[in-house]
Specification:
With 122 residues, the chain is mainly α. It has one domain. Helix content is 80%, strand content 0%. It is elongated, with a radius of gyration of 20 Å. The termini are far apart. The mean pLDDT is 88.
């Protein structure tokens, strides 16, 4: 076992899944002049999945921090500060759900309009 969780691969995966990938997705969404519904749906699903991976990694690192001799690990992953680390996955998951919901609601609205055009009597 390593003396600190900060040198573990899981910690660096947490950084990638918590900061790098979501920032890349947000950047792509913001600079896109046109984007398909499937791409929006894909980005939403990716954000929800990344939130799940973040929670898993935070739980795993919390367990490792308790067993490591480093006090810095305990200060970040074994204290009340851990709650602050869970805010990122909650936000990313929420935005991902909103993106998915947007695509589904838009599709359903279009399907209802199509139905009303095809069945005017009813």
């Amino acid at each position: 076992m390593s003396p600190s969780v900060f040198v573990e691969l899981r910690f660096w995966l947490l950084v990638v899944f918590s900061l790098v990938l979501p920032a890349g997705i947000y950047g792509l969404l913001l600079v896109s002049r046109a984007i398909s519904s499937r791409a929006v749906l894909g980005f939403g699903v990716a954000l929800v999945l990344m939130a799940g991976v973040d929670v898993y990694l935070l739980q795993s690192l919390g367990t490792l921090a308790k067993a490591s001799p480093s006090l810095a690990d305990d200060a970040l992953f074994g204290s009340e500060l851990t709650i602050a680390l869970y805010v990122l996955p909650v936000v990313f998951g929420g935005i991902g759900v909103n993106l998915i919901s947007h695509v589904l609601l838009r599709h359903l609205t279009e399907a209802e309009k199509r139905f009303e055009r095809e069945h005017p009597d009813g």
